[in-house]
């Protein structure tokens, strides 16, 4: 890392960097080599960090699995204990303990649905109240059909402005790609 910092020091202190300019092909080549070395160092640091993160995640997953198994053992026995208490006293829905509560609550049934059959039934019984009709513009198709002119989005067949769309011009995007390695 100190090699990269040494190379950056060649450009100078922040005050000197303000006046720094690339004025010819040689300087541009030199700067590209500097960027390539910096990016290579970034990749090296990232790879080392990822390897350590992966190792820690594997350790965490193993420990969580082991502890989940231990907790499940005790939870199973607590539920069994609570079932026995409810068998003796059906009103014992909540058992308060120093480190928490055991709770038993009735649940709503789970529904397995066949939406096609359900839709057929709803259409016959009361479609206005039981069926949702959702309308939404198909943007991909509209975009293919439209044409940008300034900040307007026009229908080229009619020349009309398509309402609800404003085109926002964006400046060109510049990137610097270097070969690392």
Number of strands: 4
In this structure, how is the largest beta sheet organized? 2 strands, antiparallel
Radius of gyration: 33 Å
Number of helices: 6
Strand content: 5-15%
In angstroms, what separates the terminal alpha carbons? 16 Å
- The dominant shape is flat
**What percent of residues adopt helix (DSSP H or I)?**
40-55%
Please mark out the parts with pLDDT under 50 across 5 or more consecutive residues, or reply none. none
Oligomer: single chain
Q: Given the helix and strand composition, which structural class is it? A: mainly alpha
Please, what is the average pLDDT? Answer: 87
Strand order of the largest sheet: 1-2
The sequence of SSEs as H and E is: HHHEEHHHEE
Walk me through the topology.
Layout lengths: L1 H8 L4 H4 L7 H64 L5 E4 L2 E4 L11 H11 L1 H4 L8 H7 L1 E3 L2 E3 L27
Antiparallel strand pairs: 1-2, 3-4
Structure, briefly:
This protein has 181 residues and is mainly alpha-helical.
Give a written overview of the molecule.
The protein has 181 residues and is mostly helical. The protein has a domain at 2-103. Helix content is 54%, strand content 8%. The chain has six helices and four strands. It has helices at 2-9, 14-17, 25-88, 115-125, 127-130, 139-145, and strands spanning 94-97, 100-103, 147-149, 152-154. The chain has a two-stranded antiparallel ribbon with strand order 1-2. Strands 3-4 form a two-stranded antiparallel ribbon. β1 (94-97) and β2 (100-103) form a beta hairpin. It starts with a helix and ends in a 27-residue tail after the last strand.
